[in-house]
Every structure is written in C-alpha cells, then in structure tokens.
Amino acid sequence: MALVAVILLTVSLSLSALIFGAHLALALAQYTPTVPFALTRRVLDRIIVVLGWGCWLGAVFLAIWPPDRHDGPDTWRGRAVFSCVFAPVGCFVRYYLSMYLNSRIPAFPLGTFTTNVFGTIIEGVCYDLQHVSGLGAVVPAALTGCQVLQGVMDGFCGSATTISTWVVEMNGLSKRRHAYVYGLASVVVSLCFLIVIMGSLLWTRGFAEAVCG
C-alpha cells in the first residue's frame, strides 16, 4: 500500500505541477523578460561552461581530499561532494541515450525508458553494497565507501533518472494508450529489477546498517 501510495502521489503531483506550470507560464508570458539569443549563445553559455567545469573539478579535488573526519559528527559533506562528482556523468548518459534512442519508436521514448531503468538498477545495486558489512555498513572504516555509493545514488542516478521528462513525455504522447503503456512499463520493469536486486540480498543475508545512513 505504501508503494502504491508513493507511485500515485509522485505521478499525480508531477502531472499537476506540469499542467499548473504551463498555465502559469502562459499567464505570465507578457510580463516575463527575455534574454537576447545572441547574448545567451555568445556570453552566458560560455560563462556557464567555464563555471560548470570549474565546479566539477573543485568537487573532484574535494573528493580526493575529503573534508570529513571519520570520528566527528559532520559526515554529510562527503556525500555532497561525491554527488557533485558523479552527477555530470548521469546527465551525459541520459542526454545521449535520449538523443539516439527516443526517435526509434515514436510512441515509446526508448532512450528515457532505458536510462530510467538503468539508473534504477544502479540505485538498487548501490543500496545493496551500502548494506553489506565491510563495504558500506557496520564498520566505521567503511564510511568513505558508503559515501561514494551514496554519491553514485544521489549524483549519477539522480541525474540519469528523471521524473520530470518522464511525465512530460507521457503527457505529450499523441494517444492515451501509448502514455499508459509507457508509464506502466517504466514502473513495472524498474520495480521488478529492484525486487530481484534488493530482495535477493534481504531474503538471504539481510541488510546491515549503513554507516552513512
């Protein structure tokens, strides 16, 4: 019941936000300032590229020399740093898979579907590794390993998987039955993979407590 509630709330709230945002954008269109295309392309885009690469390199350096102390209470920064390191990889994976695969089947965005399922699989594997003794659980020395796995989950998986694009694509499909097939397939396939990946560990060895949880 909790699973069904989460799915229903997530989908319904996302669709409601999409529709409300579209109506709000239309209502405020005449009051919203626009940035000239030439300025965006020649100046802002280049500045953002430099800032993006600079921030990512800064996160990499902080990951090499993590600011956390294993014996202190302040252990959130490692997870945040590793998330920033892995996030661009997830963005590129989603972008290129969508670009090359979405056009293959007009009624089923295959690229987004593949990315969402793949990100879900990685999420489940990382969760399992976090809850195995010695890798990311129980032993205090496993703190960095647990933070790396959390960074992959929050950064890579969070950037690769996308509820927003998924909802936009479902809403934009020409026929309702295509939207239902696409939406149900995404949820059911991803859930089946999680049952196999996480359930097999839980039902055989059980979960240990993650040190970075």
How would you portray this structure in words?
It is a single chain. This protein has 213 residues and is mainly alpha-helical. The chain has a domain at 66-204. The protein is built from seven helices and no strands. The chain has helices at residues 2-27, 37-64, 76-101, 110-130, 143-160, 163-172, 176-204.
Provide key terms for this protein:
213 residues; mainly alpha; 7 helices; 0% strand; globular
Q: Summarize the biggest pleated sheet.
A: none
The whole-number mean of residue pLDDT values reads: 87
Total strand segments: 0
Q: Radius of gyration, Cα only, in angstroms?
A: 20 Å
In short:
The protein is an all-alpha fold. The protein has helices spanning 2-27, 37-64, 76-101, 110-130, 143-160, 163-172, 176-204.
Indicate the topology.
Blueprint (H helix, E strand, L loop, with lengths): L1 H26 L9 H28 L11 H26 L8 H21 L12 H18 L2 H10 L3 H29 L9
Helix pairs in contact: 1-6, 2-3, 3-4, 3-5, 4-5, 4-7, 6-7
